[in-house]
Amino acid sequence: MHSQPKKTLILGASTNPTRYANMATHRLLSHGHEVVLLGRRTGEVAGHPILKDTTEISRDIHTVTLYLSEENQKAYEDFILELKPQRVIFNPGAENPDFEEKLKAAGIEPLEACTLVMLATGLF
């Protein structure tokens, strides 16, 4: 049973099939979610382009899932706050307590979780 489709921004998207961001893209699509991919390098995953420019991203994102280190998130913090998603998932290795506090203050739910596990257990 699938939950309601949630338009999900994958930040740190990668064309490398061994990367968790890549696996999450495929898994989200197989669960019926719409994906938007943002990364440092352009490319394509499952027919979806990886964007490099945040201005190309529509403002109707439900979930942001982070596959970037705390240091690499800094450049995107204001963008994510302006996006006002319902939640931001900090995948293992992406934990960022300072940014999580900023999200909470803005009424956005931060989750330290694994997107792949959430999908597998029906919690996404």
Q: CATH class, anyone?
A: Alpha Beta
Low-pLDDT regions: none
Helix/strand order, N-terminal first: EHEEEEHHEHEH
The CATH topology corresponds to Rossmann fold
Q: Strand order, biggest sheet? A: 3-4-2-1-5-6-7
- Approximately what portion of the residues adopt beta-strand conformation? 15-25%
Give the domain tally: 1
> How far is it from the N-terminal to the C-terminal residue, by CA?
11 Å
SS class: alpha/beta
The averaged pLDDT comes out at 96
Number of E-state strands: 7
Number of helices: 5
Briefly summarize what is shown.
With 124 residues, the chain is of the alpha/beta class.
Topology summary:
Layout: E1 8-11, H1 20-30, E2 35-38, E3 43-45, E4 48-51, E5 63-66, H2 70-73, H3 77-83, E6 87-90, H4 97-105, E7 109-112, H5 115-121
Write up this protein.
The protein has 124 residues and is of the alpha/beta class. It has a single domain, classed as NAD(P)-binding Rossmann-like Domain (Rossmann fold). It is built from 5 helices and 7 strands. The chain has helices at residues 20-30, 70-73, 77-83, 97-105, 115-121, and strands spanning 8-11, 35-38, 43-45, 48-51, 63-66, 87-90, 109-112. Strands 3-4-2-1-5-6-7 form a 7-stranded mixed sheet, with helices on both faces. The protein starts with 7 loop residues before the first strand and ends with a helix.
List the main descriptive attributes of the protein structure presented here:
single chain; Rossmann fold; 22% strand
